[in-house]
Amino acid sequence: MKYSRLTKEQFEELHQEFINFLSTQSITADEWANLKANKPDLAEMELDVFSDLIWEGVLNKAEYLEHISPQHMYLFRLGDDKMHALVVTLKNEIDITTKEGYNWLRENLMDENVEFLQADKDYTDDKNLDKFKMIEQGAVITKGDLYRYFNKLIN
């Protein structure tokens, strides 16, 4: 398995897609029940293949990632050839993961305790795996509103 297995909740959300996936493999509902009961290893493999297919689709469509920690905001635009990172760093004890801390940042963007950095980063041979590893480390897929805001502010 290349990524990680979907959670039970994710499988429930994607129930119809999973049924369609099984039907493309010519597996009926009865055959699926039989697989789960009598060949659990094979059923597990089907769950893993489906999970990887879903992850590939999601990662192919992802354009922006964000990872926000108490003193850092990492904002990424996921380009075709490389990713562009904007990093906002607080050099004081303000915690931007709280409402108060985030409001402080919004009102004090030009404060000496706020530092902006930006850089490009090349992908490895597997662009989607690079994105997935960032998600595993806490990044979330977004629509890019914060990235665009800070990119306009900095540039």
TrEMBL record:
It comes from the Bacteria. It comes from Flavivirga algicola. Pfam families: DUF6495 (PF20105). This is Histidyl-tRNA synthetase.
